[in-house]
Amino acid sequence: MAARPPSKEEVDEAARAEAAARAARAGGSASAAPKELTEDELRQVCAAVLAPMVEGLRNREWKGWGNPFRARLTPETVVALGIPHYFSRVPLADTMDLHRMHDRCVIPPGATPGPEWEGGPAPSAFRSVDEAGAAVRQMAANAAAFNGPLHKVSKIGSELVRLWERSERRMKEEWRKTAAQLVRRRGAGR
């Protein structure tokens, strides 16, 4: 089965989840006016909550395969990896890998981009656990689109999604608590 685009229901659910995540960051309900976290605060929450999980996924190895999602996929690296036709099956705009996810969790705002960002701005932090989860699912969908659903790399991608989803509830609660602490500190003038 090939990767499919999300259904309208999935898109609507993602929008609802994002609204709830914004509200959780503000410490309220989805209907409350959220106190948005600054980019610096988002980076702090990502570093505290998401980075350990992403690092755990990056460190995971599969016998004979290593970790096929750890490499940063660029037009140059796909050639070096022996898959020069990757971007003919997976649009460059949809590219996701654990290296990119890690960057979004740990690069401080205003950081000077490394050469891998080709002079572009440093990436923005994830806005929610759901947004980071969507990135994990995008990696798995890209693997299935490129390799076919029965390929070992596609199965590894599905395993990464399962590992993420097992920890999602805990990460959402940690995100909510950490964000609320940062908002309180900001309100206290620290």
SSE arrangement:
Blueprint: H1 8-26, H2 39-59, H3 75-80, H4 86-89, H5 98-106, H6 129-147, H7 152-187
What key attributes describe this structure?
single chain; 190 residues; mainly alpha; Histone Acetyltransferase, Chain A; 7 helices
Structural write-up:
The chain is an all-alpha fold. The protein has a single domain, classed as Bromodomain-like (Histone Acetyltransferase, Chain A, Up-down Bundle), CATH 1.20.920. The chain has seven helices and no strands. Helix 1 runs parallel beside helix 7 and helix 2 packs antiparallel against helix 7. The longest helix is centred in the last third of the chain and has 36 residues. The radius of gyration is 17 Å and the shape is elongated.
Strand content: under 5%
What is the total domain count?
Answer: 1
The CATH C-level name is Mainly Alpha
Helix content: 55-70%
Number of strands: 0
User: How many strands, which pairing sense, and closed or not: the largest β-sheet?
Assistant: none
Q: How confident is the prediction overall: mean pLDDT?
A: 82
Helices, by number, come to 7
> How far is it from the N-terminal to the C-terminal residue, by CA?
52 Å
Principal-axis shape equals: elongated
- The low-confidence runs, each spanning 5 or more residues with pLDDT under 50, are 25-34
